[in-house]
Structures are given as C-alpha cells and as structure tokens.
Design brief:
Its EC number is 7.1.1.-. InterPro entries: NADH-Q_OxRdtase_suN/2, ND/Mrp_TM, Ndh2_N. Keywords: Membrane, NAD, NADP, Plastoquinone, Quinone, Thylakoid, Translocase, Transmembrane, Transmembrane helix, Transport. The protein is mainly alpha-helical and about 525 residues long. It has helices at about 5-10, 15-35, 45-60, 80-105, 110-130, 130-150, 155-185, 195-205, 210-225, 235-240, 245-270, 275-295, 305-325, 325-360, 375-390, 395-410, 410-435, 445-450, 460-480, 485-495, 500-510, 510-520; strands at about 70, 75. It has a two-stranded antiparallel sheet. It is globular. It starts with a helix and ends with a helix. Residues about 510-523 have low confidence and may be disordered.
C-alpha cells in the first residue's frame, strides 16, 4: 500500500472536531503550566471557544460522502455527528456553570477543565467508533476521566466516597463489557470491525449459539451501566450526591448520550441477528428503569438524589425509542437527548446557584424561594416541568415523539407504562415548584430567610447567569419551535448507512428486502 493510498484510507479529516478539542486541551494544560493560577481568568473561555469551534467543524461535516476513516475504525456519519455535537455542547454549558463552583471549592480550575475535555474526547470518539479496540479505548478515556472528576474536590469526604464507589463499580462493569466483547471477537474468528463481525457470525451460522447470547448480555450490561439503567444504576444516586454538581451535570447528559450512541451502533452493527433477544433485554431494563427511577424519586429529600433517580427514569423513556428499532424510534431518541441536554443542564445550573448561595441542596429548603430570587425560581420551574413533560415545553414533545414511535412499533405495554410513570414523575417535579412558588412569606425555610442579595457581578457569576438564561430560553423555545430539531433528528437517521435497512423497511414495508438488496448491490 503506497503512502497516497494509505492517507486516502485513513481519511483523517473526519476527526477534525476531536482534533480541535485536543488542541484546546493542550493549550489549556500548557498555558496553565506556564502562566500559573492567573490563567484561570481565560482558560474556561478558551475551552468554550474550542468546543464551539468543534461544533462548527461537525456542522461542516454534515452529510459527508466518505464518513469511514482509520481503516474502518471510525465512522463520521450523520448519527455520530449529532451525538458528538450533543456531548460537545453539554461540556460547553457545564464549563459555564463550573467556574464559580470550582473556584469556591478551592481546587484548580484548569486541571478540572482539562479532565472534562479529556472525557469529552472519549465520548466523542465513542459516538463514532465502529471497531472493538476503538470502542474500548474511547470508553475507558470517558470512564477514567469521569472517576477523576467525581473525586475532584479532595477535601470533601463525600466526593472521595462517591469516586471510590464509581471506580469499583465502573471497573467491574468494564470487566463484564470486555468479556462480552472478547467473546464477540472469538466467535467472529478474530474480526474487530463491527460490520465484519456480523458478517463472519452470519457466515459461520452462529446466530443461535449460546456464546453469542452470553456476549450480548455482557455487552448490554456494560452499556446499561453507562446509561445508568436499572438494575445497573446502583452507583448513580451516591455518585450524584457526593460529586461536584458540574460533574453530575456532565455525567447526566454527555456520558449518557455517548452510552446511547454506543448502544445504537453496537446493537445494529454487531448483533443484527439477535434483534428479538436484545429488544427483550432492553425492554426489561426500560421497565425497571421507569418504575424504579420514578417511584424511588418520590421519597427523596435531596435535590441531587431526586435528579439522580429522575435520570434513571429518563433513561427508561429513551430506551423506548431503541426498543422500537424503527427510523422514528431512533430519531425520537436523538430528539429527546437534544432537548434533555438543555432542560437537565438548566436544572443543575439552578441547583448550583442555590447551593452556592445557601450551602444546601435539601428540597425543603427551597420553600418560598420565589420571594427572594424570581429568576432562579422561574428557570428551575420551567426545567422541572419540561423534564416532567408538561406542554408546551420541550420535554412534552420529546416524550410524545418517543411514545408515538413506540406505539407505531407495537410496544403498547411499554408506552402505557411510560405514560403512567410520567404522571408519577410530574408529581415530584411539581412538588418542588409548588414549594418554591405557593408558600406564604411566613412559611419560608431558614435558608431562604437568610438568602444573600443576588449579585451577578461577583467573579464567575456572569458565566452562570449566561448558562441559566441560555438553558431557560432553549428549554422554552425548543418545544414551541421544535420543527428544526425534528428535521435534524430524522435526517441524521435517514442518512446513516448502518441504519439503512431499518430506514428502508420503515418507508417501504414489505418491499424492503428487494430495496435493501438493490442498495447493497449499488454500494
């Protein structure tokens, strides 16, 4: 293979967004070493600029005619572009909310942002990885960075405990996932590319082998840990409660999006012969997640733990789109994760602001907040109501699209359970809103009575204000002006080569096999 041909096959231009993030990371680390503590004035804004530049680079790669790169190890199709954009955007918003929080905790901001950018790189590569070694390295880059961020406030014993629990359970899940992947490697005769694995297993007529089923279960267990689906959710409440709040915000959106991107690619590329089996396993996970997440959230007294169980329930809702296995199902997943980004990060921005001003995250302490901080009350109310699925907010349209896709695919029981658990979730979201808004002045909590004067001109508070307003506007408008996001989600699925058989069967029904074979002949 000559050099020109090798360069052509590597097609390194597809990872330009990741290259921008990596360059930004190096600038931050080296700049911090040279300049010292005073670098914290410009480092967060450099990181946000780099992430926004990466999002622009992703936009320019939209509908790339040659998405395969690095000899088949990475796929920069439209599906991966959307998920990489969600992860990069979630990191940018998280950095806005972390500046004041990290500085007030007395730890180094540059190192924190450096670790977060490393996690972002891992998540972005994971979203497009189409080869086993690339998947594993990307997954570990994301996971190890997450462990480090969880224990970042070293002086806080809760943060140390959360990091240790996360590390131990995460290491176990990685071992389980790796064992499943190694079985897949062995059964396919030594193939590492996902498409080649599926072909080799089909050629060897191993679709009914016990080894393949065990591999599937182990791989799903690894993915379920990443998306915090019950019963692989044990780490979530403790890690959410003990970690620095900006870390929790990133884990609840960026890490979850990367996990769902991996699930879509792995299930459709490596296990197309076991569709009924993996849909059954994910159905069980979705039922457990929706019921456990939403019911246990009712009993929580801590805002962070309530949002932790809420995120488990939300993962159950998103899995309905995955189980549907249709074009509308996958598009509804993409749409919901896009709007979930803003409403969940908005809720965490409010949580951080309240904690910075009062030093507590107990739900009872929010009582009467409207009297002292109307902006914070409005933003938190909008984000919580959107998470609950109240019209006309973004979360309502996201849930409607997921339930409609599930109903079309015949998942009637799952959709009905989703509707019931949504009603349950509305109760505990509205409980917080009622506490903030309806309470009389004499019923104010002690924390609100001693609430400090709102001062946005303090160091690090302006970025928090920008994050607050940005998430409030996006959550409000994403529901009313949801059509562009619907189009984006649908287009990203329709143009993804890996999902072409699903797209064709969704459009043409019974004529799908003939159309599919014609498409494969053209390719």
């Amino acid at each position: 293979m000559d050099f020109a041909n090798l360069v052509d096959q590597l097609n390194a231009g597809t990872i330009l967004p990741e290259g921008i993030v990596l360059t930004t990371l190096m600038v931050i680390v080296i700049g911090d070493l040279i300049v010292g503590r005073s670098a914290s004035r410009w480092i967060p804004y450099t990181a946000i600029a780099g992430l926004l530049a990466a999002i622009v680079a992703l936009y320019l790669q939209w509908d790339n005619p040659a998405p395969i790169s690095f000899l088949g190890a990475f796929n920069s199709d439209d599906l991966s572009i959307v998920f990489r954009g969600i992860i990069a955007l979630s990191t940018a918003v998280t950095i806005l909310m972390s500046i004041r929080y990290i500085e007030q905790s007395g730890t180094a901001l540059a190192e924190f942002i450096g670790i977060m950018l490393t996690a972002t790189l891992g998540g972005m590569f994971l979203s497009g990885a189409s080869e086993l070694v690339t998947i594993f390295i990307s997954l570990e880059t994301l996971s190890i960075s997450s462990y480090l961020m969880t224990g970042y406030t070293k002086r806080d014993p809760r943060s140390n405990e959360a990091a240790l629990k996360y590390l131990l359970i995460g290491a176990s899940s990685t071992g389980v996932f790796l064992y499943g992947v190694s079985l897949l490697y062995g059964l396919s005769g030594g193939e590492t590319q996902l498409s080649a694995i599926a072909s080799a297993i089909a050629d060897a007529n191993l679709s009914q082998s016990l080894g393949l089923v065990i591999s599937l279960v182990f791989v799903i267990a690894g993915v379920a840990f990443k998306i915090s689906a019950a019963p692989f959710h044990q780490w979530t409440p403790d890690v959410y409660e003990g970690s620095p709040s900006p870390v929790v915000a990133f884990l609840s959106v960026g890490s979850k999006a990367a996990g769902f991107a991996l699930a879509i690619r792995l299930m459709n590329s490596a296990f197309p012969l076991l569709i009924d089996e993996w849909q059954f396993v994910f159905t069980a996970l979705a039922v457990l997640s929706m019921v456990l997440g939403n019911v246990v959230a009712l009993a929580q007294t801590s805002m962070k733990r309530m949002l932790a169980y809420s995120s488990i329930g939300q993962a159950g809702f998103v899995m309905i789109g995955l189980i549907a296995g249709t074009e509308a199902g996958y598009a509804s997943m993409v749409f919901y994760l896009l709007v979930y980004l803003f409403m969940n990060l908005g809720a965490f921005t409010c949580l951080i602001l309240f904690t910075l001003r009062t030093g507590t995250d107990q739900i009872s302490e929010y009582s009467g907040l409207y009297q002292k901080d109307p902006l914070l009350t409005l933003c938190l109310s909008i984000c919580l109501l959107s998470l609950g699925g109240i019209p006309p907010l973004a979360g309502f349209f996201g849930k409607i699209y997921l339930f409609w896709a599930g109903w079309q695919a015949g998942q009637y029981g799952l959709v009905l359970l989703g509707l019931v658990t949504t009603v349950v979730s509305i109760y505990y979201y509205i409980r917080v809103v009622r506490m903030m808004v309806v309470k009389e002045p004499q019923e104010m909590s002690d924390a609100v009575k001693n609430y400090p004067e709102v001062q946005w001109n303090l160091p690090g508070m302006r970025p928090l204000q920008v994050g607050l307003v940005l998430t409030l506007v996006a959550t409000s408008l994403a529901g009313i002006l949801s059509n562009p996001l619907f189009t984006l989600a649908n287009t990203s699925i329709a143009r993804t080569t890996t999902l072409q058989p699903i797209v064709i069967s969704s459009h043409f029904g019974a004529t799908a096999p003939a159309e599919n074979s014609a498409l494969q002949t053209q390719q």
